């Protein structure tokens, strides 16, 4: 558990100094600025404390803690075990999901991977395992990962007030989609929603927890992801909102019932546009269509594909926004088109 005190920005320097003097500042994490409905705040990371307030400010459990990337420190830990050439190739960043460290290690450090994992684990005493990332692929978007050190690969990651239980060697969890998961948590109040590529509940869970739709039908084809989807529905207590369906959304999606359809999949998403439009109510609704696209086509191809699919079904399209989610690979962007489909 990572704790922080939440303070008004103008108190930042004063409280930071007090935290250093009082030896409760956690120097492994960043001081973070955030904007909430209540205004702007700073989160000062603090070491594990038993009290509920420090200097009169609340101690909270920090979601998505941001760690200071201290390559010098990982290199420092490895000095003496690795040559100068090897030290220069040591990773400078890694990703923490729940209590698991996920790191990419270059092939030529293969025989030093356990040493690197030991060094990382010593830097994050609250973490239990280190997993090597070797890429992602296939229809199920399953990662290729190797447990290097530690006691397991299943964890519960907490984000934006939601719990995501997962096995990091079996399902993906993109840190680049963080903002999109948050954005989905603000949409769908009172609506009927279909999440065609639900995974472990990346979008369905935040929407169900925060926006309170009437119903979300969440479809997932991979039995391993589906098992976590069901578990996450239970963990987040949204059994009354989400109906999970194991199956292929091109056959399992309902027709004519949704106010909103989420298409959170990349690669061949356009093949499913017809089914997504049919899932919307007769008089229409909103589509969130994801696509990976070369940068120079990002503002044209995804919109054109939505328009073409709608035209084939005799529907009208109003593109509300095309937004960049992240850089997917060199020269390729992951974008999402928000479009209103109508009669
Ligand atoms: C991994 S998620 C996408 C991730 C998500 N955009 C995020 O926030 O990270 C896509 C999911 O769609 C599922 N999937 C792929 N084809 C499908 C289909 N035809 N029907 C239902 N689910 C499908 C995959 O198994 C995968 O779990």
From TrEMBL:
Keyword Isomerase assigned: no
Q: Which residues bind S-adenosyl-L-methionine?
A: 174, 181, 220
Q: GO BP, one example? A: tRNA methylation
Which GO terms of the molecular function aspect are on file? tRNA (guanine(37)-N1)-methyltransferase activity; tRNA 4-demethylwyosine alpha-amino-alpha-carboxypropyltransferase activity
Superkingdom assignment: Archaea
User: Which enzyme type, at the first EC level?
Assistant: transferase
- Lineage of producing organism: Archaea, Methanobacteriati, Methanobacteriota, Stenosarchaea group, Methanomicrobia
Q: Does the keyword Coiled coil apply?
A: no
Q: According to its UniProt record, which reaction does this protein catalyse? A: guanosine(37) in tRNA + S-adenosyl-L-methionine = N(1)-methylguanosine(37) in tRNA + S-adenosyl-L-homocysteine + H(+); 4-demethylwyosine(37) in tRNA(Phe) + S-adenosyl-L-methionine = 4-demethyl-7-[(3S)-3-amino-3-carboxypropyl]wyosine(37) in tRNA(Phe) + S-methyl-5'-thioadenosine + H(+)
**Annotated ranges, domain SAM-dependent methyltransferase TRM5/TYW2-type:** 94-343
The name of this protein is tRNA(Phe) (4-demethylwyosine(37)-C(7)) aminocarboxypropyltransferase
One Gene Ontology CC term in the entry: cytoplasm
Q: Which gene is transcribed and translated to give this protein?
A: taw2
| Role summary | Specifically methylates the N1 position of guanosine-37 in various tRNAs. S-adenosyl-L-methionine-dependent transferase that acts as a component of the wyosine derivatives biosynthesis pathway. Catalyzes the transfer of the alpha-amino-alpha-carboxypropyl (acp) group from S-adenosyl-L-methionine to 4-demethylwyosine (imG-14), forming 7-aminocarboxypropyl-demethylwyosine (wybutosine-86) at position 37 of tRNA(Phe).
Similarity comment: Belongs to the class I-like SAM-binding methyltransferase superfamily. TRM5/TYW2 family.
According to its UniProt entry, this protein's organism is Methanosarcina mazei
Q: What EC designation does it have?
A: 2.5.1.114
Q: Which UniProt keywords apply?
A: Cytoplasm, Methyltransferase, S-adenosyl-L-methionine, Transferase, tRNA processing
């Amino acid at each position: 558990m990572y704790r922080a005190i939440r303070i008004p920005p103008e108190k930042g320097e004063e409280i930071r100094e007090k935290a250093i003097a009082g030896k409760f500042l956690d120097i492994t994490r960043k001081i973070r600025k955030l904007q909430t409905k209540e205004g702007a705040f700073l989160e000062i990371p603090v070491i594990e404390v038993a009290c509920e307030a420090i200097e009169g400010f609340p101690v909270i459990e920090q979601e998505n803690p941001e760690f200071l990337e201290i390559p010098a420190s990982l290199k420092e830990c490895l000095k003496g075990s690795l040559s100068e050439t090897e030290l220069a190739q040591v990773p400078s960043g890694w990703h923490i999901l729940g209590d698991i460290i996920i790191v990419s290690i270059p092939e030529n450090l293969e025989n030093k991977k356990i040493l690197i994992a030991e060094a990382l684990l010593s830097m994050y005493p609250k973490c239990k395992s280190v997993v090597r990332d070797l890429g992602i692929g296939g229809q199920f978007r399953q990662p290729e990962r190797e447990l290097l050190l530690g006691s397991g690969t299943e964890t519960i990651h907490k984000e934006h007030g939601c719990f995501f239980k997962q096995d990091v060697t079996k399902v993906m969890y993109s840190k680049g989609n963080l903002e999109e998961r948050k954005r989905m948590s603000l949409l769908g109040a009172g609506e009927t929603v279909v999440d065609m590529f639900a995974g472990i509940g990346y979008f369905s869970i935040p929407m169900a927890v925060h926006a309170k739709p009437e119903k979300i039908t969440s479809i997932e084809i991979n039995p391993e992801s589906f098992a976590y989807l069901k578990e996450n529905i239970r963990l987040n207590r949204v059994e009354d909102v989400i109906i999970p369906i194991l199956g292929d959304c091109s056959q399992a999606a309902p027709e004519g019932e949704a106010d909103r359809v989420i298409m959170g999949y990349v690669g061949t998403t356009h093949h499913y546009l017809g089914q997504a439009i049919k899932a919307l109510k007769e008089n229409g609704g909103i589509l969130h269509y994801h696509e990976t696209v070369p940068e120079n086509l990002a503002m044209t191809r995804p919109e054109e594909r939505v328009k073409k699919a709608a035209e084939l079904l005799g529907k009208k399209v109003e593109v509300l926004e095309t937004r960049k989610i992240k850089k997917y690979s060199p020269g390729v962007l992951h974008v999402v088109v928000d479009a209103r489909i109508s009669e």
